[in-house]
Amino acid sequence: AQSVTQLDSQVPVFEEAPVELRCNYSSSVSVYLFWYVQYPNQGLQLLLKYLSGSTLVESINGFEAEFNKSQTSFHLRKPSVHISDTAEYFCAVSKILTGGGNKLTFGTGTQLKVEL
Amino acid sequence: GAGVSQSPSNKVTEKGKDVELRCDPISGHTALYWYRQSLGQGLEFLIYFQGNSAPDKSGLPSDRFSAERTGGSVSTLTIQRTQQEDSAVYLCASSFSGRTTDTQYFGPGTRLTVL
């Protein structure tokens, strides 16, 4: 079975500091990995995804994640955070379903709190 | 364009009552998913639709839960004889075709509270 572990439930950080949100996965098959973000009182939004090819993927707002097969990790990083990055971040792995489609299995989430 | 919409945004019900939650996916998206977000269980998959068919219902927690989709568009999740453990945020997502490369777009969710 596939699973995702996010070890840090909360990560406080000062504005303009770097941040890393950790994600480890377990899967016996090829993986497709995602980071979703949930801003306060909003729905889940896709931040970035790894499907194949380059192991480093980037989002439009400065986040990046690197797929590391040997360490079964997909950590999310940003070199300089902004107050507006305060949100909950979910790592997810995809599993192909019967009849097509793909089910996302999510980690428990990491609350990123950016402070001035 | 319009995203995934869900209604109601909040629903408070008494234990034992039936509830219906609605999802309007993005127009043209053939794949539709229901997930549940609760304090105890985190985010968990419930059911997947491709068109009007539900090839995977493996995440439905009990036979009190059912869902249907009509016209390849709107979906309704029904919970019968609600229990307090059903309290959660129910999320709907849609994607263009259901392939892994397709992004799942989530709605804002329906917060269900069972008293």
Q: What is the string of helix and strand elements of chain A?
A: EEEEEEEEEEEE
Number of strands of chain A: 12
SS field, number of helical segments of chain A: 0
CATH superfamily of chain A: Immunoglobulins
Average pLDDT confidence of chain B is 94
Order of helices and strands of chain B: EEEEEEEEEEE
* Outline of chain B: globular
**What can be said about the biggest beta sheet of chain B?**
7 strands, mixed
Biggest chain-to-chain interface with counts: A-B, 26 and 28 residues
Oligomer: heterodimer
Question: What's the β-strand tally of chain B?
Answer: 11
Task: State the fourth-level CATH superfamily of the domain at 21-98 in chain B.
Answer: Immunoglobulins
Query: What proportion of the residues of chain A form beta strands (DSSP E)?
Result: over 45%
Give the count of helical stretches of chain B.
0
**In percent terms, what proportion of residues of chain B is strand?**
over 45%
Describe the structure in your own words.
- The complex is a heterodimer of chains A (116) and B (115).
- Chain A is an all-beta fold.
- Helices cover 0% and strands 53% of the residues of chain A.
- Chain A contains no helices and 12 strands.
- In chain A, the strands form 3 sheets. In chain A, strands 2, 5, 6, 10, 11 and 12 form a 6-stranded mixed beta sheet that branches. A 4-stranded antiparallel beta sheet of chain A has the order 3-9-8-7, with no helix packed on it. A two-stranded antiparallel ribbon of chain A has the order 1-4.
- Chain B has 115 residues and is mostly beta strands.
- Chain B is globular.
- Chain B starts with a strand and ends with a strand.
- At the A-B interface, β6, β10 and β11 of A face β4, β5, β6 and β10 of B.
